[in-house]
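Aim 2, interim progress: modelling of the uridine-5'-diphosphate-bound target.
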Amino acid sequence: MNVLVTGGAGYIGSHTAKALAASGHLPVVYDNLSRGHEDAVKWGPLVKADLSDPAQLVAALREHRIDAIMHFAAYAYVGESMREPHLYFENNTVNTLRLLEAARSAGVSKLVFSSTCATYGDPVRLPIDETHPQRPVNPYGESKLFVEKMLRWYGEINGLNWVALRYFNAAGCDPDGEIGERHAPETHLIPLVLQAALQPDKPISIFGTDYETADGTAVRDYIHVADLASAHLRALDYLSAGGTSRAFNLGTGQGHSVQEVVDCVHRVTGMAPAVRREGRRAGDPAVLVADASQARDILGWTPVHSSLPSLIETAYRFMRTL
Ligand code: UDP
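Predicted structure of the complex, ligand included:
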């Protein structure tokens, strides 16, 4: 299939483009390169254009004879979304509406959407399954939840077939070391702990040491980007086989604390990251862990790269190539 990969120059989009090509599909990357990297587009053409441009969207869908869309392009900093919510509603929500309209006029009826566990907000039960209430606690999560709601109506009214994949904590880099995670600024835990190990003058701040968890630090469900990529391929197969439109959680079902990540980085690199213990970060729940049994049972998806050492080893390998 010819698959339009919006945000295909970004972190999860580029890993999925690689996986698509490895399965015989053609990834056509649609990216304005505002936060992505041109050198991460290696497996198909790049359409350098903006999602806010309906004419370019429709032209790309027609010219490349697109069969399906994987929609990654979005802003993804929770903190930024609390300071500048309009960026998130504009880029993540309004621009997705433009994409849905373009898909409708070009007759593209399959779409896989990058959603997030941030659509759930504070957990009322754990692990979090897909029926958990969705009450986002920041504009980032809300901007993605609005899209899920639009997808439902485009499905019911316009016949769009869609899957929303709700990622937990994406981490790790391409196991072959070809592409990886390059956020500017970097705010994610694993790359920051690795940087702290490599640069003793840059300690890692642990946000919160008084949570009600085994070691007092917050627990997250880290999922390898290569496993996220394989889930997108499964979702595409599912839609192609006539599967019902719906959302799936993507996580391992196993949580790791911030302290466990620090200890594992020490073991993997042989260097002890300098640590600064700080107060909790606003809006961070103590524990976020997925129930991803639906993705396993219905999509036949199993994470294979997501052990904590594998997440850290692949991220470390890529970081040393920079
Ligand atoms: N975290 C931390 N120090 C940092 C960055 C993150 O202690 O410099 C913690 C954060 O509070 C959360 C976990 O690490 O409990 C994962 O955070 P990240 O920003 O990687 O992902 P998020 O859960 O915010 O999507």
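The mean pLDDT is 97. The pocket of uridine-5'-diphosphate is lined by residues 78, 169, 187-189, 192, 204-207, 218, 220, 258, 281, 284 (CB under 6 Å).
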